[in-house]
Amino acid sequence: MGAWGTAISSNDTYADIYGKFFDLYNDGLDVSEISKNLIADNQETINDKDNCNNFWFALAKAQWECKQLDKDIFDQVKKVIETGEDLGVWRQLDADEKDIKKRKVVLDKFLTDLQTERPKAKSRKNKIICQPVFEKGDCLTFKLENGNYGGAVVLEAIKDSEYGHNLIATTRIDQPSKPTKKDFENAEVLVMNYASCDNEPNVKWYLPIRHKQIAHLIERVENIEVHINYDIKNSMLGFVGDFDIWVIQVVDQQLKSEETKPRSKTNQTIKALTKKSKWKLW
């Protein structure tokens, strides 16, 4: 069930459904359309006796906040609470009796709230549109701990989005002079095998949450052509929010590791990630 407390909202299923509801609501969809979509897309959860109640609780709460609580949804929730069905699930999952008593209080209050007319429907939020901090193809350099210059290449820039992601490939550039365009084009991707890293190319989606604080550490020196389009929605690559930690410091740690441990035998080049070929990153 993925619960971390007795509150209606303190479980993974509720958080997921409630969040998806308001993502669609803020996109302008009607409450009835959102509800139909969520029900259709979550049949596995609805048919799971351990999780279905949390699905209906989340949907009911979201509809109620929009002043459009469907009678059938309300009746479903009312039945689950008044018959003790939800408490029965908690008992089957070996919940502590103290928590079950707390849960009962929460459920009773939740049902009372649903039967109370909300003064005003929840307003739709306008999404903030962000732009990435780097352009596709930007070649970035920065100082390493050893005093040399390191480098990274921006493989993708997601524009006009909610977050402004960049896909960044860290390279093995480690040289006393500032890298040139040719250096970036011929660079190898940094493959991590230090500590518990398992021969993983350091290519990550960068979310610039605190970019302003570390922007002074990075210099854009060139821009190269990237002929491949990377789709963030279908990507299996990781997401990071700290350039200094996940790009610069990763190079430092990998180079230190190679003083006593052989570098990874996995080889990948920037050319392979910028020019169309049969090779894929995932």
In short:
A six-stranded mixed beta sheet has the order 7-1-2-3-6-8. Strands 4-5 form a two-stranded antiparallel ribbon. The protein is an alpha+beta fold and 282 residues long.
Strand arrangement, major sheet: 7-1-2-3-6-8
Strand percentage: 5-15%
Q: What is the alpha-carbon Rg in Å?
A: 25 Å
Structural class: alpha+beta
Low-confidence stretches: none
Helix-strand sequence: HHHHHHHEEEHEEEHEEHH
Quote the distance from N terminus to C terminus: 31 Å
Let me know the average pLDDT: 93
Assembly state of the chains shown: single chain
Helix fraction? 25-40%
Topology:
Layout: H1 12-26, H2 31-41, H3 43-46, H4 52-65, H5 71-82, H6 85-92, H7 97-114, E1 138-143, E2 149-157, E3 166-170, H8 181-185, E4 191-192, E5 200-201, E6 203-206, H9 211-214, E7 219-223, E8 239-240, H10 243-257, H11 270-274
Parallel strand pairs: 6-8
Antiparallel strand pairs: 1-2, 1-7, 2-3, 3-6, 4-5
Helix pairs in contact: 1-2, 1-4, 4-5, 5-7
What do you see in this structure?
It is a single chain. The protein is α+β, with helices and mostly antiparallel strands and 282 residues long. The protein contains 11 helices and 8 strands. It has helices at 12-26, 31-41, 43-46, 52-65, 71-82, 85-92, 97-114, 181-185, 211-214, 243-257, 270-274; strands at residues 138-143, 149-157, 166-170, 191-192, 200-201, 203-206, 219-223, 239-240. The strands form 2 sheets. It has a 6-stranded mixed sheet. Strands 4-5 form a two-stranded antiparallel ribbon. The mean pLDDT is 93.
